[in-house]
Amino acid sequence: MTGSMKTLARPDCRAEILRRLRTVRPDAAPRWGRMSAHQMVCHLADACRMATGERTVTRATGPLPPAVMKLIALYLPLPWPAGIPTRPELDQHCGGTQPVDFDRDLAEAEALLNALTTREIGVAWPSHPLFGGMTRADWLRWGYIHTAHHLRQFVA
Fold this sequence. Notes:
mainly alpha, 0% strand, 47% helix, 5 helices, Four Helix Bundle (Hemerythrin (Met), subunit A)
C-alpha cells in the first residue's frame, strides 16, 4: 500500500470520510440505486459489522477469483461503478438493519467506522463475501472505498 492510497488507517482520510458522512441529510435523493439516504447510513453500519465479524454475510461469486476481485476493487485506482449488488444481510430492503432514527443511526455508523480503525492489531479479520481473505489493511482500505462510494451516491 502506498502512502497516497486512501484508507481508514490514515487519520486524514478517516476525518475526511467522517466529515462527509456528517453532511448526509435524510431527505437527500440518490444519484443512483434504490436506497434512501437513511437506508444507506444503516447499510454502512451493517457493512462495518460485517468487517468486524459481528454480522455474518453469505458468500458471493464474481466473474473472477476472489483474490483478483480484491486486487481490482481495492488496489486499482478506479471508482466503483453504480449498481453493484449487495448481499441480502446488508440490504435494507430485505435482511439489513431497518432505519429508525436518522441522527442515532448516523452516530452508530460513525462509531462503527471508528471501531474498525481501533480494532486490536493481530485480531483475526473475517473474510469478505466476494474478496475472500482480508487483512486489517485490506479492510481499512475497503472501509474507505465502500463508504466513499455510498457518499458519492448522496453527496459530493
